[in-house]
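Handoff note, outgoing to incoming analyst
You'll be picking up this chain. Sequence as last confirmed:
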Amino acid sequence: MNHWAAIFLSLFKTMPTKTQFKHYLQHKKNLLDENSDIWSLPIPLSRKKSQKADEISLTYGDYFYAVRSFLEKDEFKSIASAIAQRLNRDITSDEIEEIHIYLEKHGEFYHPARIEAFIDGYCYLFVLNVAISSAGKGFIKREFEVLNKLNNEFSFSFIPQVYSEGEICIKNKNVEISMFLGEWFDGFNEFHISRNKYKQDRTNSSTKIVVWDHEKGNFFLSDDETLELYSEVAMILTCYYNVETFEQIFPWHHAAGDFVIKLQKNNIKLKLITVRQYAPMIKNKEADKDHSDLSLILEAMLIFFLNLSLRIRLDRLDGVEETVWSDDIAVKGTIKGFLNGLSKTSSKNSIPDALATDFINYILCFTKTDLLELCNSIVNTYNPMASDIPVIKQNLTDHVDLLYNSINKL
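Most recent structure output, in case you need it:
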């Protein structure tokens, strides 16, 4: 090889390479492009069959165009910066060889995409939450800020890290889409209450938790696994409950797929993939003082616990159908997870270390009638038009009975 050929080859190797994009539907796994039939079809703006969509019409092609535009913006700054945080070194856009975009689902607020970015043959996974509807766009910027806040204030890792956010305008449609790039929990799947297992068994009307595993196939949890699932949900929400300011993660709902599960070698792990709001349900008037009133802390904690015990039992059948109420095993799991969460919460100022014991002693002072009245008061704060309300009221008395008896057995 002569001198000039060597120089030319050297320059060719250092020239920036064009990042290749590939587009997929999560449930089909087939490669899509502009020639695919589905490319020009409108995407559903909600997975709820009864929910009216905004007057927006975007195609699958529009969706993938917007995602690509977000990732390509400023020479792939968002995705390169996110990978750099993973590797703890600088990343240039030239190093990103391929990006695969998987449209995962059509949620109530977001249309999340799983992003696979390849560098030196290694795949780095992220989620890009995409908000198209007015409701979704109303949530997404605030959620990005809340996730940042919680990750900075708590040492737990039950919620995703977030990296960047922004807007993309769809050409010729005058539609702006909001997005943020965050951590993808690999191997975790959505779950819901289902009766499908018993369609051939009319003598058994119990519900089961089905896990939507698109890789290995859907499967049902055992009773022990279901107990642990509800315990993990309660533990995670309690870990992020601020016992001094009464701030908490709310609203959340199983029907929206807010929690995801990973079952590995009979070990259950849960993550909370979205945090729409973090605020107190009641105001702490003592928050500005040098110390907190323990009685006020326990009072607020009781409201948090009762609300948690109600919300944790709600879902939509198979994620999209009518609102359903979980089996009684959820109550046992809620109590277990709540107390476990309290034990993980760091004590501050005058808050005692034995907070779980203090709470149990406190709630034992209440009669069953007291707890029922408190639960009714909590339910009265919910949206009266929500489909959850009739289901809660139908089951509320039995729920409080079970809750009261279970606590008194501790």
